[in-house]
Write a structure and sequence with these properties.
2 helices, single chain, alpha+beta, six-stranded antiparallel β-barrel, 20% helix
Length: 115
Amino acid sequence: MNDQRRSPRQRSRFQSFVRVLKGDAYIDCVVRDISEMGARLGFSNPPSISGAVELHIPAKGEIIQANVVWIENCECGVSFGAKYDAEKAAKRCCGSLHSSSRWVEKIADWVFRNG
C-alpha cells in the first residue's frame, strides 16, 4: 500500500491519554506513531470515541486538540488541530505549576476557551 500522508510519521511509545470531550471521560492509550499532522493511538480495548478529543502526552508536556479520523479494533487515527505546551499554558494562566491532575484539566479547559 502506498502511504499518502502529507508529513512523515515517527514511531513512538508515549504513554498518553485521551480526554473525550463529550461526556468528559479519560481513556489511557499509547501513541504508536506521530507526525505534525496526526497520530496512531493504541488502546487496551476498542475505544468508543468519535469527533473532537484532547490528546495528552505527559512525556512531551503537550495537550493536543484532535479529531478521530478512523477506528479499527484497538487502534485509532487522529488528525491534529491546535497544540499547546502544558507548562507554557499553565504559566500563562496561573503563573506557576502545580501537580494536581484536576488543575491540569482546568488549565486545558482555560486554554481551549481563551486560546
